[in-house]
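Progress note, sequence design subtask.
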């Protein structure tokens, strides 16, 4: 037998520690999303887009509740950065809302595009190793893509400074994912 490193093949089990990291980062992300929308709603309560933001926030609450259950079932602790994401998510929501409704929507587009990649990677990795979790992740990914469409329809891309704003939020979101996977 050669002792060359063996690569994982489709259908091979995904190690429990890796699934734990996935659940932890997904829980962190959905929590962050609820905090972003809370911040936006506190600023834009009576704005034109408040109804849409509220509907998206409700979806994030459902996603968060699902990952809370999964964390309990798998006996996985939340990220140590949970308190930080509470503050950072809320601050991002408030800051983008203060720039205006379109900037708030641009924030949603940027975050959802990062989450789309993130969930797609996870679903590919899990595939038939955990079909139930894969299905959950793909269903949530569909919701996130729908949020992206809603935000674009609300004029997200017309925000002054859309490109740098979007790039900064994507960088922050990727950093948050990277950190929450490790801590
Ligand atoms: Fe979500
Ligand atoms: Fe979303």
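Output:
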């Amino acid at each position: 037998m050669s002792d060359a490193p063996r690569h994982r093949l489709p259908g091979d089990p995904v190690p429990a520690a890796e699934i734990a990291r996935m659940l932890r980062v997904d829980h962190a992300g959905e929590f962050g999303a609820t905090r972003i929308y809370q911040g936006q709603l506190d600023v834009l309560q009576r704005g034109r887009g408040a109804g849409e933001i509220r509907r998206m926030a409700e979806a994030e609450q459902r996603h968060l509740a699902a990952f809370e259950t999964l964390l309990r079932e798998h006996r996985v602790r939340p990220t140590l950065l949970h308190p930080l994401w509470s503050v950072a998510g809320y601050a991002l929501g408030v800051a983008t809302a203060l720039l205006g409704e379109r900037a708030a929507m641009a924030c949603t587009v940027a975050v959802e595009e990062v989450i789309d990649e993130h969930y797609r990677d996870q679903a590919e990795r899990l595939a038939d190793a955990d079909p139930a979790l894969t299905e959950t992740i793909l269903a949530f990914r569909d919701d996130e893509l729908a949020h992206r469409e809603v935000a674009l329809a609300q004029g997200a891309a017309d925000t002054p400074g859309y490109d740098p704003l979007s790039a900064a939020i994507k960088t922050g979101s990727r950093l948050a994912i990277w950190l929450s996977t490790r801590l």
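Residues 1-5 have pLDDT under 50 and may be disordered. Work on this subtask will continue into the next period as scheduled.
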